[in-house]
Amino acid sequence: MAPATGWASEAGGTSGGSAAVSTAVYKVTTATELLAALKAGGSAPTIVKVIGTIDMAAADNGGAFKSTSDQKARARLSLKANTTLIGTGSNAGLVNAYIQVSGVQNVIIRNLHIVNPCDVGPVWDPNDGDAGNWNSEYDGITVDGSNHVWIDHNTFTDAPQTDDLSPVENGKIKQCHDGALDVKNGSDYVTVSNNIFDQHDKNNLIGSSDSATSDDTHLTVTFHGNLFSQVTERAPRVRFGSVHVYNNYYEGSKSHPVYAHQYSIGVAYKAKIISENNAFDIQGASGCGSVLKNPGSSSKTGAIKESGSLLNGAALDLSACSFSNAVGWTVPYAYGKALLPAASVKAAVKASAGSGKLVAAP
User: Fold this and answer.
1) Is the CB of residue 197 less than 8 Å from the CB of residue 235?
2) Which residues are catalytic?
3) Domains of the chain
4) What residues contact residue 255 under an 8 Å CB cut-off, 6+ apart?
């Protein structure tokens, strides 16, 4: 199955491994089987079906990680071009894994419950922020220098290793999580649809840094039909990209004991965001600045064109944020018939988003 809309439907579309012959369709239940299937067949179309929950730190793959370098070697799932990675049934998932889509094209990832990886060796940076911070590697999924990628009907969560369970050192939680899903380094034609992003801090980074100026005119990404639940920030944070954010549902609280909401959509350096008919239910939020923010330097601005969204049931007034609306692009794909009014988004997203709800064949 291929995405019918979103950036991944453009420029020839995204089919993943749908053309795979029968001998290139793999059913895997263990870490070693999964690694072998992902390496098989070169760039020929491949479908890998995950059955049950696969733990990359299970005994068959060497057991618990002994160091950061050991984790980097054994937790990584590198997807090749023309691959579909899909969960089978209602309980398919990955633990202690990080998925890399790096320098390839035509990849589909669907129907997986992904426990965001926890770095075994966070590094303290005294120069990060006003008082230093712990920094970790490994996202649930990283899309790096790749194109035509569809990420659909997955669930990303820190649970059960939520941030309140990490120790406090140097006055800060020793944060072991990085991103849930990041897109960077000139990636294009990416659709992120019908996923649940749950209990996470720095969720979706689109564009890795202000200095990555080659990202300008790239990072074409669509977010639609996603549920962001108890996500602190970056849902998404955008630099440079032409990013379409529509019909997503956000729920959270400014006073949540672990994942207190800071902002949802980050309008960072040279961002070009079109936001339509999203619904924000954020306890304690008041006004545009509660959900939209430039999280970077005040001298490095971006643009957002907003229409039809609701904040706690009232129309989201973008004028209170003083962002430019000169995004310089228009949505190239058809989606109008599927565009829901914001008042209908909560029910629709809660009914359809996340892993275990996918009924279509891969």
Assistant:
1) yes
2) 234
3) 7-352 (2.160.20.10)
4) 283, 284
129-155: pLDDT as tens digits: 888 999 999 999 999 999 999 999 999
- Cα–Cα distance between 77 and 56 in angstroms, integer? 9
Cβ atoms < 10 Å from Cβ of 287 = 13
Are the C-beta atoms of 142 and 109 separated by less than 8 Å?
no
Measuring CA to CA, how many Å separate 140 from each of 94, 99, 111, 244?
9, 6, 14, 21
Q: Which residue has the tokens 């962002």?
A: 323
H or E element: which one contains 199? strand 196-202
| 298 contact partners, CB below 8 Å, separation of at least 6 | none
Task: For residue range 94-105, list pLDDT tens digits in order.
Answer: 999 999 999 999
- CA atoms of 71 and 178, how far apart (whole Å): 14
How many residues does the structure list for the chain?
362
C-alpha triplet 25, 189, 311: angle, nearest 5°: 110
Distance CA 285, CA 253 (A): 8
Environment class of residue 42 by beta-carbon count within 10 Å: exposed (0-12), middle (13-18) or buried (19+)? exposed
SS3 288: helix
- Evaluate whether 158 touches 119 at the Cβ level (below 8 Å): no
pTM of the model: 0.97
